[in-house]
Design brief:
Blueprint (H helix, E strand, L loop, with lengths): L3 H14 L26 E8 L8 E5 L2 E3 L6 E2 L4 E4 L3 E7 L9 E4 L4 E4 L4 E12 L5 E3 L3 E5 L3 E6 L6 E5 L3 E6 L5 E4 L2 E10 L2 E8 L3 H17 L17 H17 L2 H17 L3 H15 L8 H13 L3 H14 L4 H21 L2 H22 L8 H13 L4 H33 L3 H21 L5 H19 L3 H21 L4 H13 L3 H14 L5 H10 L4 H14 L8 H10 L2 E2 L8 H10 L3 E9 L8 E5 L5 E2 L4 E8 L3 E2 L8 H10 L3 E9 L8 E5 L5 E2 L4 E8 L2 E3 L8 H10 L3 E9 L8 E5 L5 E3 L3 E8 L3 E2 L8 H10 L3 E9 L8 E5 L5 E2 L4 E8 L4 E3 L8 H10 L3 E8 L1 H6 L5 E7 L5 E3 L3 E8 L1
Parallel strand pairs: 9-10, 19-22, 24-27, 29-32, 34-37, 39-42
Antiparallel strand pairs: 1-4, 1-6, 2-3, 2-5, 5-8, 6-7, 7-9, 8-9, 9-12, 10-11, 11-14, 12-13, 13-16, 14-15, 16-17, 18-21, 20-22, 23-26, 25-27, 28-31, 30-32, 33-36, 35-37, 38-41, 40-42
Helix pairs in contact: 2-3, 3-4, 4-5, 4-6, 5-6, 6-7, 6-8, 7-8, 8-9, 8-11, 9-11, 11-12, 11-13, 12-13, 13-14, 13-15, 14-15, 15-16, 15-17, 16-17, 17-18, 18-19
Length: about 950
């Protein structure tokens, strides 16, 4: 029965109704708006869909010409449409008759089947419905015609015997019955209508039934649930809230509706007034006006003008419904009684601000600024007088405030919240709204410093409002709008970073408002506007969609969503523009928005582009207000190459603005594009040229799935029929690139770690002598730092090494000669060790460490081993200039006995104990042979 996408949207709507507080939902699907059938005008639309529980599936459909149509919010209804509801679902439809109240509504219960018979009537086959309105929904059943003279009545038709039960809640119903004269059933009356057969003859009869109050209460119970489903959890913008919370509002609504229908005169008046207040909080101006009117009828106040509090609320209801003239006239009656009544001053400011916004949309900036400043004065006056207690000199004001407290249902809001703080908070937020209008005027006129000052003033006003009453959500969304405006200014002056900061802060404000009220339309629209200016169009559309899904009667998100869809889906955009025009209040249908929307939904005749060149056809299509759709080539010899053979839609068709117009272009012979995937670039070029095409753009694309230098993909794709010489673009596989790290002055080990960490490999490592870098650190690298290379590429390193010398060959030299040779080579004589041997000449070098020919740093110690024979002869070491300690050790190691003959500088040594003695002379001299344990005399000098 349902289209595949229907359940997706309806499930999304169910989810919206079951979200926990503070949870911000996401929209993934645009709400469906079905195109109207040709040559028909809609007579009603579906306003609300209510399932029995959050777990139940929505089961409602519209049959049109025997075919099911998606039944969603905003589905338009036409003559002869059949509406069917299942066991779990109730729906609300509203009238679209322009000559009557645009918000007359009909509540259709579960398991019902009705037919739209025309612009003013419904035929009920079976099921139940309740009509609320002035006169729109006249009802037909099998045996009777019901014409209302009031506002509320319930009709139930049995699915078995087709009998009808009528219960009148308000007003009166004229009942026309076959075979009987007309009768009238007044409020709190009920009858049943059915067939009776007597002696084979059938006649239609009716009879009054008892238990009317119980039947009325039953009607109230099921319709209350339908009416309350999906109502806003917050109050209308800019009015002073009448009830503190949505929970209190629901409780008050149920009690007030019961009192208004079933109560006595005093209870009815209070009930109707409370209903008016609640409908005003829900932004349902038409129902609020009706409720206030009923309150006045029941109350029958002796005052000519009516109760001031009721008149103030009525003025706001007129304004919400778009009746600005009636609102202005009504509120001035109140202010004529007292110019210091804060709610009335606020209401007057609201009227002026609405008119300022209308003038702004029309481009009348001077008038818009004047009205916005007048509104601000009234808001500021409302703020000032809200905190002033009335004195004896103003008994009228004191009486109005007392009456205001009494008029609130059980006065719970007045007592709990402190109305003065609430009034002042709303007045401050509304002052901020007036600053936003003046800021927008300055921005459009190019006076950016003035606009920036106004946005800042708005921010301060919203902040003050939030401090006075933190639960007022429009101080948060207003702050978001002010920050958004500053972001737009920053972007227009190319202050990109500052613009991003402002837009981010604005986004935070709107999300904060959604934390308070997950169904807040202004927050979703504001968030969508910020997303749009951030370039995040998908996020913007998602937020506009959520606004529509939560409250489908608000025109703002339809317009914003339509503007975003104009380029990509002009047909759907036209549908959203159409919904915007249908729901926008009459007084606001004057400016550029409405003009834009009307132009978008007006049909355009498709131009004739046949036989034009493609370039000329494109110009003609765009000039006609359409968009160029698909362009396809078609081989033919009957038309000149490059001219239009045919078009879709055909010439002269009426289509929506922006509709794509597809054209077919004459082409001569075609060639098939070769498949060059996985070829090398050189091989691909040869294949392309061989196929009669030309090589187009060659672009690299990083990938690890194809060998380096091979073709990943091509455009056009393989097997496409194209004109000879068509460029074929190819995309060549390139490995992932990385930037080479800077490893200079690192140790070799640290450099290796840095290279591997960067996704590269260590290549060749070579040493280079230098005194400018520390030993073992990196002097240079190849590739150099910061180069972009393939991942896994090698980096070659040059490592710092000190200068080297070769160790001389001192073997068979005498010790003295060896010492001189080692010193001449830039090395240092190390330890001299005697070693017994008969193979070498006494006193000559028999081995050395390091060995001859080794490359070592300058100054390296060279240890030598000196031959001594077994007869006990040893070589006397040369200890001249050696420290006393070292000299004695060397002599003793050679097997000789050291003997100190003289120490010079002894006095100095006593004064300074750190002075050391060095050998200045020895006897016998070093290098000579001597018997073991011979004495070597030493002369020392202190240094």
């Amino acid at each position: 029965m349902f289209h595949k996408g229907t359940w997706t949207i309806l499930t999304c709507l169910i989810t919206l109704l079951t979200l926990t507080p503070g949870e911000i939902p996401r929209a993934s699907t645009l709400p469906v708006i079905v195109n109207p059938p040709p040559s028909k005008a809609p007579v009603a639309r579906i306003k609300k869909i209510k399932q029995a529980s959050s777990l139940a599936k929505v089961n409602a459909t519209v049959l049109r010409d025997g075919k099911p149509v998606v039944a969603t919010l905003q589905t338009e209804l036409f003559t002869e449409d059949v509406i069917a509801t299942g066991a779990n679902t109730s729906i609300v439809i509203v009238s679209l008759d322009p000559d009557r109240s645009r918000d007359d509504r009909c509540l259709i219960g579960p398991n019902s089947r009705l037919i739209i018979k025309g612009a003013d009537s419904i035929f009920i086959r079976f099921g139940k419905m309740l009509s609320m309105g002035k006169s729109y929904f006249k009802v037909q059943v099998k045996h009777a015609y019901l014409a209302p003279e009031g506002t509320e009545f319930e009709v139930t038709v049995s699915s078995t015997d087709e009998s009808t039960r009528l219960v009148v809640l308000e007003g009166a119903i004229n009942v026309g019955i076959e075979n009987n004269g007309p009768s009238k059933i007044k409020a709190l009356g009920a009858i049943t209508i059915g067939e009776r057969v007597v002696r084979g003859k059938a006649s239609v009869v009716s009879k009054k039934v008892g238990g009317v109050r119980e039947q009325v209460q039953s009607a109230l119970d099921w319709t209350n649930d339908v009416i309350l489903a999906g109502q806003p959890t917050y109050s209308t913008e800019r009015i002073i809230p009448h009830v503190a919370s949505s929970e209190e509002r629901v409780t008050a609504f149920r009690g007030a509706r019961r009192d208004a229908i079933l109560g006595r005169s005093k209870e009815q008046a209070a009930g109707y007034e409370t209903l008016g207040n609640i409908y005003a909080d829900w932004e349902d101006g038409a129902e609020a006006i009706r409720a206030y009117g009923n309150a006045s009828k029941v109350n029958r106040s002796k005052a000519k003008q009516g109760p001031p509090v009721l008149l103030t609320n009525l003025a706001e209801a007129y304004r919400i419904d778009g009746q600005l003239e009636a609102a202005d006239k009504t509120i001035r009656e109140v202010l004529a009684l007292s110019g210091r009544y804060a709610p009335a001053l606020n209401a007057l400011g609201n009227i002026q601000l609405d008119r300022a916004r209308i003038a702004l949309d029309k481009g009348d900036f001077g008038q818009a600024k004047t009205l916005a400043e007048e509104a601000r004065i009234n808001y500021e006056n409302s703020y000032q007088v809200a905190g002033i207690a009335p004195d004896k000199r103003e008994p009228m004001l004191a009486g109005m405030l007392l009456e205001e407290a009494r008029s609130n249902y059980k006065s719970s809001y007045q007592a709990a919240s402190g109305q003065s703080a609430v009034v002042r908070a709303v007045a401050q937020a509304n002052t901020g709204e007036s600053h936003l209008v003046v800021a927008e005027i300055a921005r459009r006129e190019g006076r950016l410093p003035d606009a920036r000052r106004e946005y800042l003033a708005a921010t301060q006003a919203f902040d003050s409002s939030k401090k006075l009453y933190s639960k007022y959500p429009y101080s948060v969304t207003g702050m978001g709008q002010a920050l958004h405006g500053q972001g737009i200014i920053a972007r227009s002056t190319r202050q990109t970073r500052q613009a991003d900061q402002f837009l981010g802060q604005a986004e935070t404000q709107f999300k904060e408002a959604l934390d308070q009220h997950k169904d807040m339309v202004a927050a979703y629209v504001g968030l969508g506007d910020v997303n749009r200016d951030q370039g995040r169009e998908q996020d913007a559309m998602a937020n506009y969609t959520l606004a529509i899904q939560f409250h489908p009667d608000n025109p703002a998100p339809y317009y914003s969503l339509a503007v975003l869809l104009e380029r990509t889906n002009p047909e759907q955009a036209a549908n959203y523009f159409r919904s915007y025009l249908r729901m926008e209040r009459e007084s606001f249908r004057q400016g550029e928005k409405v003009k834009h929307a009307q132009e978008s939904v007006t049909g355009i005749k498709t131009p004739d582009v046949l036989k034009m060149t493609l370039e000329a056809a494109r110009e003609a299509i765009v000039r006609s207000g359409l968009t160029v759709g698909r362009t396809r080539d078609e081989e033919t010899d009957q038309y000149p190459e490059g001219t239009i053979i045919r078009q879709d839609p055909a010439p002269g068709q009426m289509v929506s603005p922006g509709t794509p117009l597809n054209v077919f272009v004459a082409r001569r012979s075609r060639v098939s594009t070769p498949d060059v995937s996985k070829m090398t670039l050189e091989a691909a070029r040869e294949a392309i040229v061989r196929s009669g095409l030309t090589v187009g753009r060659t672009r690299d694309e990083e990938t690890d799935q194809y060998p380096e230098g091979t073709i990943i993909r091509q455009d056009p794709a393989p097997g496409q029929m194209v004109s000879p010489g068509t460029p074929l673009n190819v995309f060549v596989a390139r490995r992932s690139r990385v930037s080479t790290p800077d490893v200079s002055k690192m140790t070799l080990e640290a450099a290796r770690e840095a290279i591997v960490r960067s996704g590269l490999t260590v290549g060749r490592t070579r040493d280079e002598e230098t005194d400018q870098y520390e030993e073992g650190t990196i002097i240079s690298q190849d590739p150099s730092p910061g180069q972009t290379v393939l991942q896994g590429a090698t980096i070659n390193l040059v490592v710092a090494r000190r200068s080297r010398v070769r160790t001389p060959n001192v073997l068979n030299m005498t010790l003295e000669a060896a010492q001189k040779e080692i010193a001449r080579s830039g090395l240092t004589v190390g330890q001299t060790t005697a070693q017994e041997t008969d193979e070498y000449k006494l006193g000559t070098i028999i081995s050395q460490d390091p060995a001859p020919g080794q490359t070592v740093p300058p100054g390296t110690l060279v240890n030598v081993f000196v031959a001594r024979n077994q007869s006990g002869m040893v070589v006397i070491p040369d200890v001249i200039n050696k420290r006393e300690f070292d000299a004695i050790r060397m002599i003793q190691e050679a097997g000789l006995i050291p003997q100190v003959v003289e120490r010079r500088g002894a006095e100095r040594a006593q004064k300074d104990r750190k002075v050391e003695y060095y050998v200045t002379s020895q006897d016998p001299p070093g290098g000579r042979g001597a018997k073991q344990k011979s004495e070597v005399r030493l002369w020392l000098q202190a240094r």
